[in-house]
Design goal:
Radius of gyration: 30 Å
Strand order of the largest sheet: 5-6-2-7-12-1-13
Structural class: alpha/beta
Strand content: 5-15%
Shape: globular
Number of strands: 13
Oligomer: single chain
Length: 784
């Protein structure tokens, strides 16, 4: 039993610390007292289903504490689930049977629990076989490994370059139902051992049986690649841990810490059998195409035209394969052989704890796209690591096709979470983009109006009505402020105005205030119309869009692109350029996507945001700024079992409670611990002046003061004479650092400092940081 409910270990002896450390499977003999307290607090929060803010100063082993506490709870919960004492996926499904007799719900939950346990056993057996296969492969010669690697390779198909419009059916909007329930995607479960029950009992269970398939058997349908979200797949592992941080390097560091623990240890296979260790956690790291794509053509497009163009080219290649179009050689087909290939990747990826680089290497080895394969594998992972945007964007979570229900969400480095949420859900458009979007819709309606279903055309004309209103409003607003400027009343001041979303809709005129934006939002998302009407702009690149509207880029070239794209391609090739680059320049990103995201933002509650208008002659910019982060974060809090917000400096915690988590008095928890450094090892003091009496006033105006820089260098040399080991010096800015380094190089101060200790400068380019840190590590390990 885990020692959770005792007094603080701050005054406990070494033996008590060791016992507590062992209970949490801490990788070292004894955790620090504050680490034990932190692990206990995290465990309590998860067990109670709380939303907690946890503060643990940098250097106190926060990552290990998070890992040990979360995985200890996960292992304990799995043990309870196997005995029928814990809630899981079966109970979560059973919640939909509200109002049915308790014994019917209990019977169904028990049947589902047994089915999920059988599936879990089968999954573990598959992964064990993959683990053994990996161990055997490591013993093979490099030549045989290369031969095995080549078994997945396929010949690339030549790309079609015809001029006909025979495939225009691909651009038709999907059949759309505007009924309350919408189109049904559910499948009826096959007959099972409940057939002997009476007709009345079967009727009670019918609504449940009709919605899902038997969770005990692998799903017959498994899809991957663009448009696969929402498809039936194999059962998800629940509960599980979602670990979120700002950068990919922080995610990789977390995985490295996991490998140090019992939960992430690599199993050593001896003579085809694993040792007596616990199985490592099934973990998957998710990232962007920039980090995970292995297609050289797509990578070239990214280098020349940016990430958005990279995404476009990837989706085009993923959708290819019909009518002679080129298809990505790494993305398996949607058939039995492709499913076997994706499952092989999944089993090998989950066999050991691997970071993103390992997953990319595995994709190269198996000739399988790691970007899509990792997303498919995430459904069966116990730990999913992902960057902020994939968690905070509703559309991104939907595209991943994974549920947070019953899971543990850990947000690390959460001190800037509020600002990140506001940034992710804020976006801007221009009057030029409005004009481009109008042209796209008009051309689309001209071509397809006779073939569209009635509800499709109605919604498209509503969308066109909104675009007309935006265009008219922008012109009137610009003219009004131009008149103000010419009259001299606003001379010298930028034309700006702040409106509520409701006020903007009213100012747009007509009957726009009667349009159901929520219903239109559903149409835009379900029909994916923005993917079908896109047209590249020949005018100028649109504003950089926020992550909020990233979902709108999940499409291939739209009908309106075809002629202009062909002309651009011909011009590029005539000038000796690259075909892929011709199709995907930064200016080819659709205005329609920005407009869609902006309209969706207007459906938010009035008090949740504001629209900022700005005259950027000859354009008018409209920016939606989210003001209430709690509404954007609420779906995560409501769906997850527990949410852990962790960071080194989380104060003021009241901001999280007031701005991000209002109304959660019963679920809200906080914990803050001190540093592992004892007070005797810490000294904080202020040095007012240098050895010669020059005041240390590091103001912007003094950045080029030679006397000040020389005095600082003298002070550092004196400190280096008495400090036995390393010194870290923080300066106000990179510009100040560059000026100081140049001055010290010229005056000889840098040489004097270098004679005492090897000096390293932090590079401004983040890509160079790892190299400097590697040299720093070598200097530390070098003999004196």
């Amino acid at each position: 039993m885990l020692p959770l409910f005792g007094t603080s270990t701050g005054d406990a002896g070494l033996e008590a610390q060791q016992l507590a450390s062992a209970a949490f499977a801490f990788p070292y003999a004894a955790a620090y007292p504050m680490q034990i307290d932190l692990m206990r607090a995290i465990f309590r929060a998860i067990e109670a289903g709380q939303v907690g803010v946890f503060e643990s100063p940098t250097g106190t082993g926060k990552s290990l504490s998070l890992i040990c506490a979360a995985f200890s709870w996960l292992r304990l919960n799995k043990a309870r689930a196997s005995e029928g004492l814990a809630s899981g996926a079966a109970d979560a499904e059973g919640e939909h049977m509200t109002g049915q007799p308790d014994w019917v719900v209990a019977h169904d939950n028990e049947k589902r629990r047994q089915a999920l346990l059988r599936y879990e056993t089968e999954l573990k057996e598959r992964i064990a076989r993959a683990r053994e296969a990996q161990a055997r492969e490591k013993k093979r010669a490099a030549a045989q490994a290369k031969k095995s690697e080549g078994s997945w390779k396929k010949k690339a198909r030549s790309e079609r370059t015809g001029d006909d419009d025979g495939d225009s059916d691909a651009f038709l909007a999907s059949d759309y139902s505007d009924s309350e329930g919408g189109p049904s995607r559910m499948r009826t479960a096959p007959a099972d051992d409940s057939a002997f029950l009476s007709a009345e009992v079967r009727a009670l269970m019918a609504e449940f049986e009709a919605r899902v398939t038997n969770a005990g058997a692998p799903r017959a349908r498994m899809r991957w690649g663009p448009g696969a979200e929402g498809e039936d797949e194999e059962p998800e592992t629940t509960p599980r841990i979602f670990y979120v941080s700002r950068t990919h390097s922080q995610l990789a560091q977390f995985v490295a810490e996991l490998r140090k623990t019992r939960f992430g240890k690599t199993l050593h296979i001896v003579d085809g059998a694993a040792g007596a260790h616990d199985e490592p956690a099934r973990s998957i790291s998710l990232g962007s195409r920039k980090q995970m794509c292995i297609n050289s053509e797509v990578q070239r497009v990214a280098a020349r035209a940016g990430a958005e163009a990279m995404n476009e080219r990837c989706r085009e290649l993923a959708k290819g394969g019909d009518k002679g179009k080129k298809r990505c050689e790494y993305l398996p087909k949607q058939d039995d052989a492709g499913k076997a290939q994706m499952l092989d990747y999944r089993d090998r990826a989950l066999a050991q704890v691997q970071d993103m680089e390992d997953l990319v290497a595995l994709g190269r080895e198996l000739h399988t796209c790691p970007y899509y394969a990792a997303r498919t594998s995430a459904r069966q992972a116990e730990l999913v690591t992902l960057p902020y945007n994939l968690l905070l964007q509703p559309s991104a979570r939907e595209s991943l096709n994974i549920s947070l229900a019953g899971s543990i969400v850990i947000v690390d480095e959460a001190h800037n979470l509020i600002d990140t949420i506001l940034s992710v859900h804020s976006l801007g458009i221009t009057s030029r983009q409005v004009a481009q979007a109008r042209e796209q819709i008009q051309e689309y309606l001209r071509r397809f109006s006779g073939r569209l279903k009635g509800s499709n055309e109605v919604n498209l004309r509503l969308l066109l009505q909104i675009l007309d209103g935006l265009a008219t409003f922008s012109k009137k607003w610009a003219a009004k402020h131009a008149a103000t400027q010419s009259s001299g009343k606003g001379k010298g001041r930028a034309a700006e105005e702040i409106l509520t979303a409701a006020r903007l809709i009213k100012e747009m005129g007509g009957t726009l205030d009667q349009i159901n934006l929520v219903k239109l939002e559903r149409y835009l998302k379900d029909s994916q119309i923005a993917r079908k009407v896109r047209r590249p702009s020949s005018l100028s690149p649109p504003l950089s869009l926020s992550l909020f509207c990233a979902h709108a880029y999940q499409q291939v070239s739209g009908y309106a692109d075809k002629r202009q794209a062909r002309e651009a391609r011909e011009r590029q090739l005539a000038e000796g350029g690259d075909d892929a680059e011709a199709r995907f320049t930064p200016s080819a990103i659709s205005a329609m996507h920005a407009i869609e995201a902006f309209i969706l933002s207007l459906a938010n509650r009035t008090d949740d945001g504001r629209v900022l208008l700005n005259d950027e002659t000859p354009l008018v910019s409209l920016k939606y700024q989210l003001l209430n982060p709690s509404e954007a974060f609420r779906p995560i809090v409501d769906e997850a079992r527990a949410v852990i917000l962790a960071g080194g400096t989380m104060e003021p915690i009241s901001d999280f409670r007031r701005q991000l988590l209002p109304g959660l008095e019963q679920r809200f928890a906080t914990f803050s611990c001190g540093h592992i450094i004892p007070p005797s090892n810490l000294l904080a003091t202020v040095v007012q002046a240098g050895p010669k009496g020059v005041p240390f006033e590091f103001k912007f105006g003094n950045r080029d003061d030679s006397a000040l820089l020389d005095e600082l260098a003298t002070c550092l040399v004196n400190l280096a004479n008495v400090v036995p080991h390393g010194i870290v010096v923080f300066l106000p800015s990179y510009a100040f650092l560059a000026g100081a380094a140049a001055r010290w190089q010229a005056s000889g101060a840098l040489a004097r400092l270098g004679s005492k200790k090897k000096v390293f400068f932090e590079p401004k380019n983040a890509a160079d940081v790892d190299g400097v840190l590697a040299e720093y590590t070598l200097a530390i390990d070098a003999p004196p």
